[in-house]
Write a structure and sequence with these properties.
With 122 residues, the protein is mainly α. It folds into 2 domains: 30 residues, no CATH class; 71 residues, Orthogonal Bundle (434 Repressor (Amino-terminal Domain)), CATH 1.10.260.40. It contains 6 helices and no strands. Helix 3 crosses helix 4. The radius of gyration is 22 Å and the shape is flat.
């Protein structure tokens, strides 16, 4: 597990008896999740160069849910909104956490529908 700046910061301010963050000792304040309207969501997905299906897999929801978010039928809330906030702030987290991996793919040679390979006028 990687070293955590967060853990060190919290440890430095906690009371010796508390040993954990609670609402009562108010060491950490959690901001509300952001609001994700269709255009903001589309911009995020576009900046990541991923399809609706890939975003759905990342978020753990159906492709239909992502489509509904992008059409304004529903809005992401709860854990989905929080995850989108994190993804927006730290897009590399997907690679660093091993959520996604990038693989080289072999390019296929162009073949016209007739089945014959295309020639360059030779």
């Amino acid at each position: 597990m990687a070293a955590s700046i967060f853990r060190d910061e919290v440890r430095d301010v906690l009371f010796r008896k508390a040993r954990q963050c609670t609402k009562k000792n108010e060491v950490v304040r959690v901001s509300p999740a952001g609001e994700w309207d269709p255009s903001r969501l589309k911009k995020l997905r576009s900046s990541l160069h991923i399809s609706q299906a890939v975003l759905a897999d990342i978020m753990g929801v159906s492709k239909a849910a992502v489509i509904a978010w992008e059409h304004g039928v529903n809005i992401p809330s709860g854990a989905c909104a929080r995850l989108l906030d994190i993804l927006y702030a730290y897009p590399d987290i997907l690679l660093e956490a091993g959520v996604v991996t990038i693989h080289e793919v072999e390019r296929r040679k162009y073949r016209p529908r007739s089945g014959k390979e295309k020639t360059d006028g030779v």
